[in-house]
Amino acid sequence: MIRGLYTSAMGMITQQKRQENVSNNLANIETNGFKKQEIMAKAFDQMIVKNRAKISENILSPIGKIHLGVMIDGVYTDFEQGPLEETSHSLDLAIQGGGFFTIELPNGQLAYTRDGSFQINENGQLITKQGYLVLDHNLQSISLENERVQIDKNGSITSDSGQKFILNIVNFQNGQDLHRLGENLYILEGGQTVPAENYLIKQGFLEKSNVNPLEELVKMIEITRSFESNQRVIQAMDETLGKAVNEVGRLR
Hints:
alpha+beta; three-stranded antiparallel sheet; about 35% strand
């Protein structure tokens, strides 16, 4: 019975983590280029149960296997394409297909994003809305005189003064190697970039979040019910243990 308490408690912990993840997805419905995450759960490794009746003979006979509930296996990011929204702003860019814009952080580290809501800073450099530099295919900053630019489907930028740059659009052998940094940015951990293929750059558009609010609300209801079921199991076991301690074997 004590084992059952632990099993139900681990189930509640798992559902709590899932609830936190769903809440984060819902909170980012309006975040440009946001990719929803899923919590992956798995069963604890099986344990062999042995018969201790023959312990006096120093022999334990296996009588079966048990699981001790579930645990968090990891977090999966769904990189499915989000819907495109037209803004008509010349520096708003959306990637249709696979790929990420390349960004340079203040410490020189490379980061990646799907959020193409770009601006020009006081030095004439193309930046993200957080102020980080957007890089070209030579991993150099992009200097523009103004927002009057033409950007083709391959990411080639042409200013009204004739300057030309090519955006550095990359992809990854395994998207799950990307680690969320915050501010809608990713950094690569343990993998490598590959040239992006089969993509189009849409000028004057932004990619919206790929979170489906209806699906997330359904998950939230499912999680709540599962959490409550585990809670009721713990309450029932607690009451039974209480009776075993306080009433069974009582002398009257």
